[in-house]
């Protein structure tokens, strides 16, 4: 059965690292919004444009992902999936295509996230963006960790 892998976590939690491992071990197609955004964003400090492009990139990637799932190809989405509603919506749509959904949650505390992001910020790899502590703290308040019933 085809599988949709949802990679859930905040910046610095290890989403891309896990997604790249799954890409190989599960022979799946991986979609990373940040990588696409980095290719087209003129100014990496333009957060308003980055947010606008994120919605577009995730929408296009999801369109491709649904087609791949319908063709029997496993897919990995590393969008972060910060809300239960978003995770539920993707699950319902994937299951309607006959795919199963596997949620991967990377739970990392604030201090460790900030340590990792500080290291990453010092030498940004391709496809990543600078994250300040203030934004990270703000995002942690918005993040809804998955509940046990979401791991079915």
Task: Describe, in plain words, how this protein is organized in 3D.
The structure is a single chain. The protein is α/β, with parallel strands linked by helices and 152 residues long. The chain has one domain: 3-Layer(aba) Sandwich (Rossmann fold).
Given the helix and strand composition, which structural class is it? Answer: alpha/beta
Mean pLDDT: 96
**Order of SSEs:** EHEHHEHEHH
How many runs of DSSP E, i.e. beta strands? 4
Low-confidence stretches: none
CATH superfamily: P-loop containing nucleotide triphosphate hydrolases
CATH class: Alpha Beta
TL;DR of this structure?
The protein is built from six helices and four strands.
Blueprint of the fold:
Blueprint: E1 3-8, H1 15-25, E2 29-31, H2 33-40, H3 47-70, E3 75-80, H4 84-96, E4 100-105, H5 110-122, H6 133-142
Parallel strand pairs: 1-3, 1-4, 2-3
Helix pairs in contact: 2-3
Which descriptors apply to this entry?
single chain; 152 residues; Rossmann fold; 4-stranded parallel β-sheet; 52% helix; globular
């Amino acid at each position: 059965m085809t599988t949709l892998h949802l990679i859930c976590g905040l910046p610095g939690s290890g989403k891309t690292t896990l997604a790249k491992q799954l890409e190989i071990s599960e022979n799946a197609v991986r979609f990373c919004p940040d990588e696409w955004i980095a290719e087209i964003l003129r100014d990496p400090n333009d957060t308003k444009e980055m947010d606008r492009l994120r919605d577009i990139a995730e929408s296009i990637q999801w369109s491709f992902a649904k087609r791949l799932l319908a063709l029997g190809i496993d897919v990995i989405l590393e969008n972060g999936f910060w809300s239960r509603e978003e995770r539920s919506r993707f699950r319902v749509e994937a299951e309607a295509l006959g795919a199963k959904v596997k949620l991967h949650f990377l739970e990392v505390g604030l201090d460790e996230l900030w340590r990792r992001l500080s290291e990453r910020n010092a030498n940004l790899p391709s496809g990543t963006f600078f994250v300040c502590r203030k934004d990270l703290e703000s995002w942690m308040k918005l993040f809804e960790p998955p509940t046990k019933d979401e791991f079915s």
